[in-house]
Amino acid sequence: MKSSARTLDTVIVLAIDTATPAVTAGLVRLDPTTEVLATRVTVDARAHGELLTPHITAVLAEAGIGFDLVDAIVCGTGPGPFTGLRVGMVTAASLGHALGVPVHGVCTLDAIAAEAPDTASLLVVTDARRREVYWAHYEHGRRIAGPDVVAPAQLPDVGATAAAGTCADVTGLPVVGPAHPSPAGLIAAARQGLDSAPGEFRPLYLRRPDAVEPGARKKVSA
C-alpha cells in the first residue's frame, strides 16, 4: 500500500455502477480536484455479479490503496434492470457496512449527463429491455424531468438537440455523451452530497421485476 497516495486533505471514493450493460468500478481522489486513480469497465450485461468484485479489488491494487483508506462509496442507483442493478447496490451497501463508511446513491442517468457536453437541452436514454427505454431530460446539466421508463415511441418531445447514453436509433438524435457512466461521472453527480450525510439508498427500478411469487395452488376436484 502506498502511504503517499493520500493526505489528510484528501478523500478517497470508490465509485461503482451496474445499472447498464457496463460493469463499472473506479477509485477517485478528491483534494478538492477530482483525480481518477484507477478504472475498470467491462461491457457485459450478463457478468455484473461475476466481474464487479474483481473490478473493485483491481482498482484498489492498481492505485496501491487498501480498503481501510476508502472514505466513501458512490453507487449508481439506476434506473436499470433488476438483476444487474441489485448487484452493485448490494455490494456497495455491504462494503459500506463492513468498512464503516457512507454510501451515496446517485441516479445513473445523472452520471451520464455529467460527462456530456453542456447543451441547452439534453435527453439521456438507456436500454431498459422489453422494447423500452429509460430516459431523463436535462437543461444545462440540471435534470428537469424523469427518470422514467417508456416505449421508444413514447419518448417526450422536449426539443432536445442532442442525446447521451445509448439507443441513438430510437431517439433520432446525435449521441454526444457516454453510453454508460464512468467513475468520474458518478463522482460529479454525487459531488455536492459528499460533504453531508447520505440520503436514502434506494434503487430506481421504475417497474416490477420479472419474477413474481407463485399464486395459491389450485384445488383439485375429485
Model description:
The chain is α/β, with parallel strands linked by helices and 222 residues long. It folds into 2 domains: 3-108 and 180-193, 2-Layer Sandwich (Nucleotidyltransferase, domain 5); 116-171, Nucleotidyltransferase, domain 5, CATH 3.30.420. It contains 5 helices and 9 strands; from the N terminus they run βββαβαβαββββαα. The protein has helices at 48-63, 82-99, 108-114, 168-171, 183-190; strands at residues 11-17, 22-30, 34-43, 72-76, 103-106, 122-129, 132-139, 142-150, 162-165. Strand 4 (72-76), helix 2 (82-99) and strand 5 (103-106) form a beta-alpha-beta unit. The N and C termini lie far apart (72 Å).
Biggest sheet: strand arrangement = 3-2-1-4-5
**Global morphology:** globular
Main beta sheet: 5 strands, mixed
Low-confidence stretches: none
The fold-level CATH name of the largest domain is: Nucleotidyltransferase, domain 5
Q: Decide which structural class fits the backbone.
A: alpha/beta
CATH architecture of the largest domain: 2-Layer Sandwich
State the CATH superfamily name of the largest domain. ATPase, nucleotide binding domain
Summed over residues and divided by their number, the pLDDT gives a mean of 89
The proportion of strand residues reads: 25-35%
Identify the quaternary structure here. Answer: single chain
CATH C-level class of the largest domain is Alpha Beta
Number of domains: 2
Helix content: 10-25%
Which value, in Å, is the CA radius of gyration?
A: 19 Å
Tally of extended strands?
9
SS summary, helix count: 5
